[in-house]
Design goal:
Length: 84
């Protein structure tokens, strides 16, 4: 059986806005990487390079978070190629 911890955040309005912007930037980065890879896949030359996105978003979400998003996107695309 898995154990699940649930937390309730009591955020002020300003903190909620900051958290929403941070989450929005994370999803934008993932989607931009995904779009670039999708377009390169359709063109026949798959491009794994994500340096431009890392440098664009590391100031907004932090370098460790940007690296983790790249890793998760890599995992998604590698599983796509293994399943195909």
């Amino acid at each position: 059986m898995r154990r699940t911890n649930t937390f309730n955040l009591n955020l002020g309005k300003e903190e909620e806005v900051i958290l929403h912007e941070w989450a929005d930037n994370c999803s934008r980065m993932f989607n931009e990487i995904n779009y670039k890879r999708r377009q390169s896949f359709f063109s026949g030359e798959f491009d794994w390079n994500t340096d431009e996105f890392y440098h664009k978003y590391k100031k907004l979400i932090g370098s460790a978070t940007a690296q983790q998003i790249i890793i998760k996107n890599n995992e998604a695309w590698k599983s796509f190629f293994c399943a195909a």
